Protein: Rhodanese domain-containing protein
Amino acid sequence: MTAIQSDAKLDAKGLACPMPIVRTKKAMKDLQSGQVLEVEATDPGSKSDMKAWAESSGHQYLATLEEDGVLKHYLRKTTDQEQAVLEYSDVCEPAELQKKLEAGESIIVVDVREAAEFAFCHIPNAVSIPLGELELRLSELDKEDRIYVICRTGARSDMAAKKLADSGFSRVVNVVPGMSGWSGQTCSLEK
Structure:
């Protein structure tokens, strides 16, 4: 099984409802915005509980994997930046990007979400460069390529598109609302 990168782990094995949620809530308070928490639980009801709690608390539920009877839940602490107003002007909707990919156009899709988000669901052939690593990894991209930047909602990709443009990339497009609006083909650990 592929290892999923998380910033913190919580052992909630052997605990019954509501204790996995209680401990998850406490652990999330200790995380920085954007970090991923892996919660290990054995309570079968924890899968629906974790998803519902994440959605109601404003955090992002990524997925749950089962390994040897242990449910591994992955949750991402949402950032304040994701509520920010978009500033980069060259944007397109996910459907427009999907048409370009299906037509075989020569474009690069750069996914700036965290590694765990990318692992659970991403556009085929997309390049994963988390926003926090973008400046260090600019040399992996060609300034002449048409680059479509995507995240979950369009906020992190907005910041990435601005950073790329400021670094001399002239053919950059922000995909809004990002993966939350994507209905095309995806690759994922969950099959």
Notes: The longest helix spans residues 46-57. The helical segments are 19-29, 46-57, 94-102, 115-120, 155-166.
